[in-house]
């Protein structure tokens, strides 16, 4: 049975812990880190860190130094390179997410603008149709002038029988009106 154990790879027996992280969670973390790196607090903190590092490894006795000047601060250089190698992709990831959000927002704004344009064009057509319809509608002044003209005609007709009485030999019920 010992020989059989050599036939089975050890990697199948041991598994790394499953770190399940959604892309959204990772992206939010990257954005938070990128946002923090752009703050004055981060810049001041990094400046203080580097200054303390340089002073410690330059001015203190050699037995206390962990990254001596004689080796050109190799450890500090490696730490800053590591920080930069992680910072650049995280910043790009955050910028890509921001670009995607901007693209979605731009698309929503474009759709909203199209709806507003369609609504505005519809309202303009409705106003034009109302103006055309209003030309055909009798206005108050038009109706007054027509009524005045009718009143004048009625008054003239009322005065006309007094001036020119029409005589007929027929009785009143046979007269044609």
From TrEMBL:
This is DUF1003 domain-containing protein. PANTHER family: INTEGRAL MEMBRANE PROTEIN-RELATED, MEMBRANE PROTEIN. The chain crosses the membrane at residues 36-56, 71-93. Residues 155-177 are annotated as: Disordered. Pfam families: DUF1003. Residues 155-170 have a biased composition (Basic and acidic residues). Keywords: Membrane, Transmembrane, Transmembrane helix. The keyword Transmembrane helix applies.
């Amino acid at each position: 049975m010992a020989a059989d154990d050599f036939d089975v790879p050890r990697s199948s027996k041991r598994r790394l812990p499953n770190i399940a992280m959604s892309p959204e969670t990772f992206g939010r973390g990257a954005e938070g880190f990128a946002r923090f790196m752009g703050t004055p607090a981060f810049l001041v903190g990094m400046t203080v860190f580097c200054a303390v590092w340089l002073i410690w490894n330059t001015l203190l006795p050699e037995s206390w130094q962990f990254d001596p000047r004689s080796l050109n601060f190799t450890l500090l250089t490696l730490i800053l390179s590591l920080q930069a190698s992680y910072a650049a992709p995280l910043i790009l990831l955050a910028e890509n997410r921001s670009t995607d959000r901007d693209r979605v927002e731009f698309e929503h704004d474009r759709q909203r603008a199209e709806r507003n344009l369609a609504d505005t064009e519809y309202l303009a057509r409705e106003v034009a149709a109302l103006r055309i319809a209003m030309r055909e509608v009798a206005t108050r002044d038009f109706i007054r002038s027509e009524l005045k003209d009718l009143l004048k005609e009625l008054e003239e007709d009322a005065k006309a029988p007094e001036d020119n009485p029409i005589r007929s030999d027929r009785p009143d019920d046979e007269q044609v009106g």
